[in-house]
Amino acid sequence: MQQTIFGKTNLTVSRTGFGCIPIQRISYDESAALLRHAYDNGVTLYDTANGYTTSEDRIGTALHHVRDKIVLCTKSAAQTPEKLMEHIENSLRMLRTDYIDVFQLHNPSFVPLPEGEDGLYVCALKAKEQGKIRRIGITAHSKDNAKKAILSGLYETLQYPLSYLSSAEELALIALCREHNIGLLAMKALCGGMISNAKAAFAFLRQYENVIPIWGMQKMRELDEFLSYEKNPPPLDGNMLSVIEKDKAELSGSFCRCCGYCLPCPAGIPINNAARITFLARRAVKEYWLSEEWQKNMRLIDNCTNCGHCRKHCPYGLDVPKLLKAQQAEFFKMVGENV
């Protein structure tokens, strides 16, 4: 497993990180086996969050015995100092540790500063002084906020969605992080499932030495696939680039990244999948996505009241209701064609 220095944190970490959202969906025994298999094969960086239900607890259960050999990154979306400190204490308890290597402010709508009335950065700094956290990072879906965080000089790490579908402006953040020695975690390297070629996704991000992808895995075969790429890194050659260019041509434009910040929808619409369902039907198991269950889900779009909740919360500025209507029309056309 290749290792690298994680920016100004000076932590040595594996170049493949483990994103721990998906382990919530499997049993405790399965998640423990998966996490231990990752550790046994050299994965040393694990990213989770206070808001990921049982994720932190599963990591603590599986890996507490090797605590001094791994790097734990967690985060909180708390909006007050009191709640932030509560989340830190909860994370320490769940992870079965007395310190967090990298504590990240979880996608705030602004970049918290020491002088800010919100008090979030000062609270994190206090927790660092107390030894509860060792480095302060931030996550962002807004490229403007990401850039502000980098240039502020306050944050040691940034977590941002990066993949071969990212725009040139988004990819420019990689060089900016390198220039300012910011540890860079790439979330959604498979773009929420839109990218089905994991080998191409791996090869694309591996060209950037300062990028650590956190692959979300819940099956042993998924983990073994990424471990195999670590042992024999796929080259970013002409064939691989042609695969990437084909995907970019098909998936470019306004599409849902499945971040989930639009949820919950007051009308009960499962926006994060409904807004990209035709892409999923073409690139995954068509029978599942065109099923009666999903036909029922897609009819919920007719109940949209245009309340604006999804537009307001979409970090990519998508006109979500318009996107849902377009996906609904194309979806039922696909259903008719496959009856």
Explain what you see.
The structure is a single chain. The chain has 339 residues and is of the alpha/beta class. 44% of the residues lie in helices and 14% in strands. It has 15 helices and 10 strands. The strands form 2 sheets. Strands 3-4-5-6-7-8-9-10 form an 8-stranded parallel β-barrel, surrounded by 5 helices. A two-stranded antiparallel ribbon has the order 1-2. Helix 2 (55-63) packs parallel to helix 3, helix 3 crosses helix 4 and helix 5 (143-152) packs parallel to helix 6. The relative contact order is 0.10.
Task: List strands and helices in order, with pairings.
Blueprint: E1 3-5, E2 12-14, E3 17-19, H1 28-40, E4 45-47, H2 55-63, E5 71-76, H3 81-95, E6 100-105, H4 120-129, E7 133-139, H5 143-152, E8 157-161, H6 168-179, E9 183-187, H7 198-206, E10 211-216, H8 220-231, H9 238-251, H10 271-274, H11 277-283, H12 286-289, H13 292-299, H14 309-313, H15 320-337
Parallel strand pairs: 3-4, 3-10, 4-5, 5-6, 6-7, 7-8, 8-9, 9-10
Antiparallel strand pairs: 1-2
